[in-house]
Write a structure and sequence with these properties.
Layout lengths: L1 E5 L4 H12 L3 E6 L4 H7 L4 E4 L11 E4 L8 H9 L2 E4 H8 L5 E5 L4 H14 L5 E8 L2 E4 L5 E4 L14 E4 L7 H4 L2 H14 L4 E4 L4 H10 L7 H6 L10 E5 L2 E6 L2 E7 L4 H20 L9 H6 L8 E6 L2 E6 L4 H15 L2 E5 L4 H6 L1 H8 L4 E4 L14 H8 L5 E4 L3 H15 L3 E5 L6 H7 L5
Helix pairs in contact: 1-2, 5-10, 7-8, 12-14, 16-17
Amino acid sequence: MHIHFMGIGGSGVSGLATAAKSMGYTVSGCDLKESSFLKMVRGQGIGCMIGHDASHIDSADILVRSSAVPLDNPEVAAALKKGIKVVTRGEFLAILLEKKHKIGVGGSHGKTSTTWMIYAILKEAGVDASVYAGGKSGGRSSVSAGEPYVVELDESDGSIFKMKPDSLVITNLEFEHADFYKTPANMLRSFERYLVSDRPANLIIGRGYDLSDRLFEMFSPLSFPTRDEIRSGKGFVNTDSRNFRIKNGGLFFISGEREVYVGDVTEPAHVLQNRSAALLAASEYLTKIGRALPEINSEFWKNVPKVDRRFQNVGNWHGMTLIDDYAHHPSEVNALIEQARSEFRNFCLVFQPHRISRFTAFYDKFRDVLKNVGTLIILPVYSAGEKFEGRASKELYEELKGGNSFVCYAENIDKTVEIIKENESRFHASAIVSAGAGDVNTVLTKLMNGENQ
């Protein structure tokens, strides 16, 4: 069977395409431009074309489109006219893994990192698992081997509701994807209906966020410490005796008579929460198959391959560390700032809002999160092809400029590089941190490559 993927150069679709190829499908794909994910897919022997054209689907049996590809796209329209089945990537993922044992990972933040952590724990325990994630780790976004399949689920377009995993981790949940859900109440209702109708055998929900707190109250699942609990040294007790305890400055997962090291409480709280969620999910599967958690210490966590664009050290420029991060929601940007302050104290943040609908919906929260950043450069909103009328990032710049902070507005990537080079001596920064899910990270590449000298 021939599967053609539109948007194959995207983080989610690329991994799905490589997973389909490993399962024996004939795979092809196309995207509007080159990307690191496109190179990864080509490197695995998948034919990829630049641009969209109706001729691409001549021999296809199924057309898989990313949510960014509209139904009136000429390629999609041609497929529908020919009677070729057209599905979203979430629908195809559910079809692909229908009869497989699945550990699903969803939520507003941290799901990519948690997905790869579960996979790493299972591999360390000798389980030849498979993984499909929305971001690369160790240069790949999927690994196809045996069961279980550790799968990152996407709530942005409702794809998560197509999947029926055996175990489900919801790392956290707060209002996001305003273009799809419209209101927090709609988002909460969608997850409530999903869990009522298809509650998995094992359910883990992270607390400390308004919507996931509501889900926790309703479904009484397993959980792990919130940020506030970690900071106050409280830990967390589950009903099945798999608990979390803080002692001697460390967070530990208690499973039976074993204490498993999660991390030092001085580490970023979101990192400890991702590890905690991963340990709960992995321990459930290992118990099911009669195996124990592997030995886990600080070296294990240090050696888990980092996920691309998650506080990723990409190099140095003039003595400053260059950090790339995918943060694009106020909570994620806030966590990024907290981690940058902890590691570098003084840093320059280059912020590119992602999607006009998101920036408009959370404008006030972005302002509150960014108002105390000492050195800040703001870029225009990266639309990601979205057609939406809303707030402009220059408005945010106008509100934040002045005072003791260094706040600039840059019309584009090249102007950002110029501002950094012209004001380098004023920053007194140990790091330059890029934040956003668009192309803001190219600022760091241009600095390292010496462009715009």
